[in-house]
Amino acid sequence: MTEQTRLPVGALYQHCDLDGLDFETTADLAEQSAILGQDRALDALRFGVGIQQSGFNLYVLGPPGLGKLTVVRQYLEDKAAEGPAPDDWCYVNNFDDANRPRVLRLPNGMGAQLRQDMQQFVEDLLTAVPAAFESDEYQARIKEIEQEFHERQEQAFSQLKDRAEKEQIALLHTPGGFAFAPMRDGEVISPDDYQKLRESEQQRIEQLVAELQEQLRAILRQVPQWRKETRARVKQLNRDTAMVVVSHEVDELRERYKQQEDVLSCLDAVEKDVVEHVDDFRHEEEGENPLLSALGTARQPSYRRYQVNVLVGHTDSGQAPIIYEDNPTHSNLVGRVEHQAQMGALLTDFTMIKPGALHRANGGYLILDARKVLIQPYAWEALKRALQSREIRIQSLGEMLSLISTVSLEPEPIALDVKVVLMGERLLYYLLCEYDPEFAELFKVAADFDDRMRRDAQSTQLYARLIGTLVRKADLKPFDRGAVARVIERSARMVGDARKLSAHMGQITDLLHEANHWAAQNGHDLVRRDDVQRAIDEQIHRSDRIRERVHEEIHRGTVLIDVSGARVGQVNGLSVMQLGTFMFGQPSRISATVRMGEGDVVDIEREVELGGPIHSKAVMILSSYLGARYAMSKPLSLRASLVFEQSYGMIEGDSASVAELCALLSAAGEVPVKQSLAVTGSINQHGDVQAIGGVNEKIEGFFDVCKARGLSGEQGVIIPESNVEHLMLREDVVEAVDRGEFHVFAVKTVEQAVELLTGLRAGERDEQGEYTEGSLNRRVEDRLLTFAELRHEFRETQKAKDEEDDAEGDEGQH
Amino acid sequence: MTPKATKDSTEPSLEQRVRRVLLAMDNPRAGTEALEAAVELAHQLRAELRALFVEDVDLLRLAALPFAKQVVTQSGTDSTLDPDKLERALRAQAEDARKGLRTSAERARVRWSFEIVRGRAVEALLSASAETDLLIVGRGRELHVQRLVTRGRRVTVAEVDQAPVAVLYPALSGAERVLSVAVGMARAAGRPLVVLLAEPDEKAAAARRDHAQRVLDALGASARFRTIVDADPLTIAGAVRDTRAERLVVGVEAQTDTERRIEHLSRAVACPLVMVR
Questions:
Q1: Which residues, numbered 250 to 279 in chain A, qualify as contacts with chain B under a Cβ-Cβ cut-off of 8 Å?
Q2: Is A142 strand, coil or helix?
Q3: Which of A217-226, A487-496, B5-14, B32-41 has the highest mean pLDDT?
Q4: Residues B144-190 pLDDT 10s
Q5: Do B61 and A206 touch (CB under 8 A)?
Q6: Which of A312, A303, A409, A316 is nearest to A356 (CA)?
Q7: Can you give the pLDDT at residue A477?
Q8: Which residues of A touch B154 (CB under 8 A)?
Q9: Active-site choice (A666, A698, A707, A775)
Q10: Do A24-33+452-543 and A548-786 agree at the fold level?
Q11: A309-344 burial, b for 16+ CB within 10 Å, e for fewer?
C-alpha cells in the first residue's frame, strides 16, 4: 500500500519544458497582442459592444490585476475608430425662462464654430448698433417725435393761455405748478383792488379761474398719456432701427446654420432679445451708480446671454469617445452647475453648466470602476437614472438634498446614447444582481475575466511571448529562456495548479520588475532563472514573518507537534493561513478520545463556537461514517470527542476531516498513529477522500517543521489523490523527496490513509460479515462491540435496580 | 458758417466791451440752461457773473387773492396758495438757485454774486444793468411742464458743438452792436451764427441782409440768414427751434414796451435769452 500511494518525484512539480521554448531571450520573441485565456470575456465584450439595444451595458468581472482595463480600452479603441463621430452638445440661454437653459445638438465640430460666430455676432452688433442710432436719419426721427410731444403740450398750454389772456387772466408759474391770476394793466390785480370789484365781477372771475383750472387739470392729465404714446413711438423707432441692423447680422448666421432647426429657433430668440434690449449695445453710460462703480459691480450690459456654452465639443476626429472617469462622483458623472459669489449672493447662468463624464462619453463609451461608483454618494443612482431614462439631467446634490437654497438652473436634459462598461470584482457583480433589481436590467452583459488559463505546450509558448511583450513594454532587461520558464512555473504555482497558468498579469508584471531589479543588482545583462528565483524568495521573505514565528514556536515545543514516534488518538492535521496575499501551511495536532456513550461525536470546536459550519458538517459526516461502517446491527455505543489542540481561533473547512477520522479510529481501535506523517483531505460518508485547497502550502508547511527537527526519511504527507495535479512544490521539498528524505502519498480512501498512518491493514468483511482478524477495522469494531455490551449490561443493571426500587416503594406504601 | 478768426482791429473786442454778465432767474428748474450759458459766457469774457433771483411780484399778489389756488404739475390736483406758503417756497427756490450758481461758478472759476429781488425778471434785469453788461434771462420753456426723457438717447458731442447762436437782427441804430456781440459769442464758443431777419417785405429784407452782411464782413465773420415774417415772440421762438439754436441774442431798446416785449419773448423761446443794450 505504501508504495502504491507514494508519489514519484515527477508528480510533485511540473517543470516548464525548455525544449518547448524555441528562443534564447525574450528579445527574440514576437509581440503578443492578443489576450490570452480570456475567450469568454472577449466574446462577451464583442457582443456587448456590438449590440445596440438599450440595457446592454457591460459589467467586466474579475479580480484586480488581470489587465481588464487594458483589454477593454484596447478593444474599445479599435471599435471607436470605426465611428461614427459623436455630436456636439451646447447650452444656450432660454430667453423665455433663463433658469431653464436650452440644449443644442450639433454635428461634430459645429459647436465651437457656433460659439465663435456668436461672439463675432455680438462684436459686430456693438459696432453696428451705435452707428445706426447715431445716424442722422435716426437722430432726425427721434427729434421729430420729441418735438411733436413738445408741440402737443405747447399747443394745449398756448390755447389755454390765449383763452385766459382774452379774459384778462394770466397763467403764472408757481413753485409747485401753475395758477391763474386776474390781470389789470398788465399786472396781477392787487387784493385791495380785487375787494373793490363788484361782487358779481368777483364771482365771474372766480368762476372763470375755476373753469381754466379745470381745463389745465385736463391738460395735465393728458400729458402722461401723450408721454406714453411718445415713448411707445420712440420704442418702436428703436425697434425698427435695431431690427434693420440685427436682421442683417442674424440672416448671415441663418444662412450658415440653415440645416440646424434648433439653431434657427435659437437665432430667432436672439434676434428678438437683441431688439428688445438694444440699449445694451448703445454704450449708454447715463445713470451709473458711482458707489457700484467703485465696487466694480456696476451694472454693465451683459452679452453673456448670447454666448454658446459648448458643453461637449469635438475636434473633427471622427472617433467615438472613450472616457474613463477615475473619480465618478455624482457631479463628475452627470455634470454640475457652478455658482459665482457676487455681493454675498450666489449667481449662475447657463455658461456655468459644466459637463460630466456621461456628457463627454455620449455617443461613445464610458468606463467606470464599479466600486468607486458605488461608494460615491448618489453616483450609482444617478448613473442608473441616466441609463434608464436615456437622458442626462443635471441636478446638483445640494439642491436634491435641500442643502442649499440658492436659485439654480434646470437645464434641458440631453439625450444619452452611451455604452457603459463597469469594471469590478465578481463579488460586487453577484451582490448587485442579488440586491439591486435594476442592475440586471441595465447591465445585461457580463464579461467574466478568468484568473487562470489552461497550461499546455501551445499556451506555454504564447505565455512566453506575453512575458516578452510585458518585458519590452516595461523596458526591462531581456529574460533568458530559463527565466521565462521559471516565471511560467511560478505562474502555475500562483494559481495552485500544475495544469493552469495565472492570468493575473499584474502579479506577473510585478515579478518581472523584481527579477529585473535583482538581475541589475547582480550585474546581469539578461534576467536569469536565479534572478527570478531570488525575486520569488524575496517576495516570500518579505511576507513570511508570521509563518516563521509559527514554525519557531513548533520547533521550540511551545506548539506541540510530534514528527516521530506513534500515539493513539493523535494525528498531524494540516491547515492553511492566508495573510494578505501570502499563504502558508502549518501542522495542527488533532486528538480524539472515546468512551462508552450513545453514538455521538462531540466536536469541541463547535461546542465552544470556534468551529465554522463547514467544519461541523465534516464532523457530522464522520459520525455518519462510523455508524454506517461499524454499527449496522448494534447501536453505536460510543461517545467521542475531537479537538484541534492549541487552536485559539476559528476553525473552518473540511480539509481536516480525514485526519479527524483517523484520530477517531485510532482512539476507538486503540491503535497508535505515526507522528511522522501528516494528513489532509476531506471525506464523504463512504470514506472516499476528496480534494482540498492549498495542498502545496500544506505539504511545505509540514516539510519545514520536519526539516527543522531533522528529516528522518520516514516523514511525509498524505494528500487526496485528486490534488496530485495541483502539485507545484518548492524545489527543496522536491529535492528531499528525490533523496528519499520526505514522502508525499496520494490516497483515494480513508482506509488507505489509516493503513499508512497505523501500519495496519484496514481489513475487509468476510462472508460472515466479520472484519479480518488483526485488522484496524476489526479492532475498532471489537472495541465498539465491547462498548455496546457494556452499555447493554449497564442498562439491564440499571433497569433491575429501578424495578427493585419501585417494589420497595410499593411495599412501603402498603 | 463758423465766423472767421480775423476781425476789425478798430472795434473793441467782446471781452473789452462786456464787464459783467447779468442773469435773471425766477425759476431754478427752467433756468439751468441759462445759468450754464451765463457761467460759460462769464468765463469766456472773463467777466463777473451777477445773478438776480426774482421773486415774481405777480405771483405774490396772486397768493394774496382769496380764491388763489395752484394746479400741481405732477399730480394735476389743486393746492391752496397763500402768501406765507409761497414765500417759503420761493425762499427754498432761491437757496437752490444760489447753490447751483455757486457750484457752477466755482467750477468755472468765475467771480459771482447772488441777490434776491422782488419784481419782474426782465424789469429787474434792465434796472440793475449798465451799458457794459450782457443780460441773460433764464426762464426756459415755462410751458414745458414735463420734458420727455428718452432713455438711451445719446447726444453726441458733434451735435452740441453744432448748436448755433441765433441773433435777432434789429431795425434800430444799435443793430451793429447786437450783431458784433453775437459774432463774439459764437466765435468764443466756436459755434455757427444764424441771423434772424424779421421783415415781411422781401425787398426790405434783402436790404437789411446786405446791411448785416457788410457788418459781418467788417467783423470778418460769416453767418447763415433766415428771414421771418414778423417779430412776434412766437414767430421768433419757432425760428429758434427750427435752427436748433442754443442761445438767442437780442437788442434792448429804450422804448416803452421793451420790457413787456422782452418778457413775452423770454417766455416763448426755449433757450436762454441774451440781451444787449
A1: 279
A2: helix
A3: A487-496
A4: 434 444 433 333 333 444 678 899 887 666 788 888 888 888 887 78
A5: no
A6: A312
A7: 96
A8: 130, 133-134, 282-284
A9: A698
A10: no
A11: bbbbbbeeeebbbbbbbeebbbbbbbbbbebeeeee
**pLDDT higher than threshold 60 for residue A284:** no
Band (pLDDT 50/70/90 cuts) for residue A155 is: confident
Instruction: Tell me whether A189 touches chain B (CB under 8 Å).
Output: yes
What are the DSSP E strand ranges found in A298-426?
308-312, 322-325, 336-337, 340-342, 345-347, 353-354, 365-369, 391-392, 414-415, 419-424
A:126-165 residues touching chain B, CB 8 A cutoff: 130, 133-134, 139, 142, 146-147, 149-150, 153-154, 157-158, 161
Q: Is the pLDDT of residue B228 over 50?
A: yes
Host H or E run for residue A565: none
A640: β partners: A594, A601
Query: Which grid cell is A190?
Result: 392787487
CATH number corresponding to A38-86+318-449: 3.40.50.300
pLDDT band at B38, cuts 50/70/90? Answer: confident
Q: Taking CB atoms and an 8 Å limit, are A282 and B154 in contact across chains?
A: yes
Asked if ipTM goes beyond 0.95, one says no
Distance in angstroms (rounded) separating the CA atoms of residues A654 and A589: 15
Cα separation, A435 vs A430, in Å, equals 9
Nearest CA-CA partner of A310 in A87, A137, A557: A87
- Judging contacts by C-beta atoms under 8 Å, the chain A residues touching residue B78 are 213, 217
In sequence order, the β-bridge partners of residue B24 are B52, B137
pLDDT value at residue B158: 37
The overall average pLDDT reported for chain B is: 78
Backbone angles phi, psi at B248, to 5 degrees: -125, 125
Cβ atoms of B194 and B226 within 8 Å: the answer is yes
Q: Does the structural domain A24-33+452-543 have CATH classification 3.30.310.50? A: no
Do B184 and B214 meet the contact criterion of CB atoms below 8 Å apart? Answer: no
Topology of domain A548-786 in CATH is: Ribosomal Protein S5; domain 2 (3.30.230)
Alpha-carbon distance of A474 to A509, in angstroms, equals: 9
**Which string of DSSP letters, residue by residue, matches B153-213?**
----HHHHHTPPEEEEE-SSTTHHHHHHHHHHHHHHHT--EEEEEE-SSHHHHHHHHHHHH
- Stated as kind and residue range, the H or E segment containing A711 is none
Q: How far is CA A759 from the centre of its chain?
A: 57
Q: Quote the cell numbers at residue A128.
A: 453696428
The closest of A678, A727, A734 to A706, measured between CA atoms, is: A678
Give B137 to chain A, closest Cα distance, Å: 16
Instruction: Determine contact, residues B154/A284, Cβ cutoff 8 Å.
Output: yes
**Confidence band (pLDDT; 50, 70, 90) for A409?**
confident
Domain ranges in chain A are: 24-33+452-543, 38-86+318-449, 548-786
Determine contact, residues A452/A500, Cβ cutoff 8 Å: yes
pLDDT tens track for B69-101:
888 887 778 888 888 988 898 898 889 889 988
Q: How far is CA A630 from CA A172, A358, A755, A763, A770, in A?
A: 138, 69, 17, 12, 10
Sheet order of strands, A677-679 included: A600-603, A638-644, A582-596, A570-579, A677-679, A716-720, A743-747
- Output the nine-digit C-alpha cell for A312: 461637449
Give the fold, CATH level 3, of B14-276. Rossmann fold (3.40.50)
Check residue A796 and give its pLDDT.
86
In angstroms, the CA A45 to CA A39 distance is 10
- Whether residue A84 is preceded by a cis peptide bond, meaning omega within 30 degrees of 0, is yes
